[in-house]
Amino acid sequence: MSKVLVVEDESHLAEGLRFNLEAEGYDVRVVESGEAALDAFSGDAFDLMVLDVMLPGKDGFSVMTELRGKGQFIPTLMLTARNHPEDVLKGFEAGADDYLTKPFDLNILIARIRGLLRRKAWLTAPPPPPRPKDRFVFDDKSVEFDALELRVHEQVFPLTLMEANVLRYLIEREGKPVSRKDMLENVWGLHEDTDTRAIDNFIVRLRRYIEDDPARPKHLLTVRGVGYRFVK
Predict the structure, then answer these.
(1) DSSP H or E run through 66
(2) pLDDT tens digit sequence for 123-142
């Protein structure tokens, strides 16, 4: 349950906000002045603040500036009775995240609150675990598919995306004959009546990278009358 601090001196509006936000499932605390808002943070933690600009004593701009100066970066929706651009800019400069002009539509206020809490959750979520490398190793060679690199001994050969796709397609079918027709349709997305010499040219280039003797390949083998076969 997210905890919301409402800073509003108009009692009817404050109680209306409390009632509707609690109906949405929020834990709500209401205070009526800027000083009370600052005091609230000394003994409690909140997930979001709804802050009126016009308050007795310290106004909303001052509260916002003081909180940000103390390193308190709670998501804040400011409420202002005036739609003057300078007031809006002043609120953002003080550190507000969003604002609404009174009178406001309750559904819009709730949507803004949800948006600010969602953004906070994104920012505080732990980073996703690193993805394992898209890598295939054979002999003293390795293919880094995500980096489009082929490593042979101490040499690194950059691969084009299509070279990498052809090699991946053959590796995934290791030991099995793969026809030129299959490669045309599944790697290039072309029809079988397309000239197949392009595939042969790709294989010639890949053999130069992979094979110790391209004239006598041991990994990218020709299957006569069919196509090619990868052997680890």
Answers:
(1) helix 60-69
(2) 777 766 766 668 999 988 99
Q: What is the pLDDT of residues 198-208, one digit of tens each?
A: 788 889 989 99
Residues 103 and 140 in one domain: no
Q: Is the pLDDT of residue 68 over 80?
A: yes
Q: Given this model, what pLDDT does residue 30 score? A: 96
Burial of residue 150 (number of CB atoms within 10 Å: 0-12, 13-18, 19+):
buried
Domain region containing 189: 135-230
Structure tokens at 227: 């196509």
Same domain, 192 and 120: no
* Phi, psi at 163, each rounded to 5°: -60, -45
Q: Is 125 exposed, middle or buried (0-12, 13-18, 19+ CB in 10 A)?
A: exposed
Q: How many residues does the chain have?
A: 232
- In a shared domain, residues 139 and 119: no
Neighbouring C-beta atoms of residue 7, cutoff 10 Å:
26
Interstrand relation of 48-52 and 76-80 (parallel, antiparallel or unpaired): parallel
pTM for the whole structure: 0.57
Quick one: tokens of 96?
């507000």
Please state the domain count of the chain.
Answer: 2
Q: Could you tell me if residue 129 is inside a domain?
A: no
Residue 191's pLDDT is what? Answer: 65
Pair (183, 218) in one structural domain: yes
Assigned domain for 192 exists: yes
Give CA separation, 182 vs 186, 190, 198, 220, 232, in Å. 6, 10, 14, 16, 20
Same structural domain for residues 30 and 104?
Answer: yes
